Every structure is written in structure tokens, then in C-alpha cells.
Amino acid sequence: xxxxxxxxxxxxxxxxxxxxxxxxxxxxxxxxxxxxxxxxxxxxxxxxxxxxxxxxxxxxxxxxxxxxxxxxxxxxxxxxxxxxxxxxxxxxxxxxxxxxxxxxxxxxxxxxxxxxxxxxxxxxxxxxxxxxxxxxxxxxxxxxxxxxxxxxxxxxxxxxxxxxxxxxxxxxxxxxxxxxxxxxxxxxxxxxxxxxxxxxxxxxxxxxxxxxxxxxxxxxxxxxxxxxxxxxxxxxxxxxxxxxxxxxxxxxxxxxxxxxxxxxxxxxxxxxxxxxxxxxxxxxxxxxxxxxxxxxxxxxxxxxxxxxxxxxxxxx
Length: 316
Hints:
Layout: H1 14-18, H2 20-33, H3 42-54, H4 59-76, H5 84-99, E1 116-121, H6 128-141, E2 146-150, H7 156-169, E3 173-174, H8 182-195, E4 200-204, H9 212-229, E5 236-242, H10 247-259, E6 264-268, H11 278-286, E7 290-294, E8 302-304, H12 307-314
Parallel strand pairs: 1-4, 1-5, 2-3, 2-4, 5-6, 6-7
Antiparallel strand pairs: 7-8
């Protein structure tokens, strides 16, 4: 048996498949980190630090994990390298639980508010429109009526892409022509959804970061208009990040959390990258729940981020 357990792909498990590149990379690096060692010492910890940073966990989060393991080594006096993967798994699990407390559920709505309004933010190219489509599909599959609002009016392609997804999922899309006021689109969407007793409204917004002030003003205006139609809206501001970009995802998270209040995050494209460790770092650094992860192209490949399941799969 290999030191950190055999790495076996299970095609029946979408999460296992989706995280396969991250798992393979992590286990290979961990194996090299402890090669020729029998116990966890300073050299092994230095190597482990390098492994975590190179796996896009992030410097600050890596240092936090290393400090926790150092404390355990000091307390237990002797820890063999055979126990290192168990310790690492436990510390990562605890860290995720601290930053994302509570139990994960399926695609159920967290409050009795109807319609429940989700405003989606994120730069172009991170899988924002695709995630909206998959989210609409998941909600519809759970018996909810869904409306989509194409408030990214600065790109014709954004409206067209959302229209395609609305057709696939068979849900109503409210749109206007390119260049229209995004807040006006949001107003029309919520008005229509409310009059038709919809359960969920998902509003797409423009993904521009080159002028943060304009972005802040635009998002604030959309929020203000929505709250007039549905008090308390938006009930959720969902930031979409591309997990395959590693540290660039951290930077985007910084920019958007400064521009608006973000209440939840989704990490996409984890199936095509070995940088799945970014989920751990982003969860830790921003103290904002990672709610969804994207692990493939199919509609059902958008999953609720289950902390325990994620770590178990990563270390299986």
C-alpha cells in the first residue's frame, strides 16, 4: 500500500472524478515531501509547507495549517510520517468547519422569503453564466419555479448565453437590449417573478473590475431597485470564482468583496485543474461560505459544497 493510500478513480463518484487532478498532484507532492523520513520533523514540515503553497492553498492559510501541525508534534512528541496524511486531513477539516459552520443541505432555499433573490457577481470568463444555468436547473429539479434576469447588459454575448441556458432549463428569462440599464432589467425581473409567485430569482450582473467605483455604484443601484420590489432583496450575493486560476481567484475575491457585500461563493472548473486546494484557502481567508463547487460540464455537476465530503474525497 502506498504511504498516503492508493489513488483510485471511481467513475460512479462525480466528486471523486472532479477532484482527481488535485488528488493526484497532492499525493505525489506529499510522497516526495516525506521520502526517506520516518518522523515528522522540521524538514518534513518545511516540505509540507511548500506542498500546500504549490497546491494553491495560499500562504496565510498554509502557515496556519503548519502551525497547527507543529503544535500537535510538540504535544505528541513523536509523530511518524505514516500519520501525516491523517493529521493533515483532520486539520483541514477543522479549518473548513470553523470558516463554514453549519450543515450543508441540498438545493433548498434558506429562508421563507419568496421570491428568494440571488444576485450573481464575478468577472467574465469564470463560468458565471454557466453556473447560473446549472443553479436554475438544480432549483427546478428540487421543485422550485425559477426566473432569470439578464442584467449584464454590457455584453451581447452574456444575454445570448443566458438565453440559451434559460431555454435548456426551460425557465423564464427577462432581458432588454444591450446597453440597457441593468437596474431596469432587475426591476422587470423581480416584478414579473413576484406577480407569478416564483420561488427563486437569479440576476446576472456585469463582470467588470477595471473600474471598481463604477462597479460598486452599479451593484448598489441594482440592489436598491430590487429591494423596492422585494423587501430584503437580494437575499444572497453569490461570487463566482474560477478555481483553475489559483491565486488569481484570491485576487478577484479581494476586489469583489471590497466592491460589494458577498454572502456566498461558488468555485468553478475544479475538474480541469490540480489547483483544488484554492477552495481551502479562499474559505479560510475570506470567512465567506463556499456554497457551491463546479466539477464538470453537465448540469448536475454543480454541487453543494459539503466540507466533510470534500475532505474525505481529497484524502481517499
